[in-house]
Amino acid sequence: MTLYILRHGETELNRQNIVQGSGVDAELNETGRKQARAFFEAYGSINFELVVTSKLIRTHQTVSHFLEREIPWIQTPDINEISWGEHEGHPSTPERIAVYKRMIQEWQSGNLHASLPSGETAHQLRERVARFVDWLKTRTEQRILIATHGRTMRCLITLLKNMGPADMEGVPHANTGLYVIHLRDGQFVFERENDISHLGATAL
Fold this sequence. Notes:
The protein is α/β, with parallel strands linked by helices. It has one domain (2-199): Phosphoglycerate mutase-like (Rossmann fold). Helices cover 34% and strands 17% of the residues. The chain has seven helices and six strands; from the N terminus they run βααβααβααβαββ.
């Protein structure tokens, strides 16, 4: 099995540095649509047998060109973005950034039950992403395209690398950044990490 794990394209809230999370269902902006098209043009020749997305529209729009081919499509909330609670829909002010950084420090010190106000914890995120990984291992398709979100991708990649939640901050995740991963004899082998070569020299 080969997994193509993709972060969604840019939204206007991404551009404006406004927190989205699972509670803000923003669409792609013009740049995001161009990124999605560029990805399709680079990888459209691959015969994907299954497309998996979160329940949020920005992932659907990112792989919409593949969905037009009527490839089997599964949506799952297990790979929705983390809930950032009361921070969602608001700009990243210095005060909110400070609260966010304190939470990250808590995670890195081992307190996986820390969260932003009314938000999801690292433990809750890791639990549902681990459930998604277990589900993936049951699939019989050989080529699966997965569209998800930044923090969820960080959690997913650390799980596939047998790393801990404290390592999430070291996982890069550009808009339409691609991870290509092979499942061989029960082990996940990484071929590409956060690859944005499809965006060209200008990196849309």
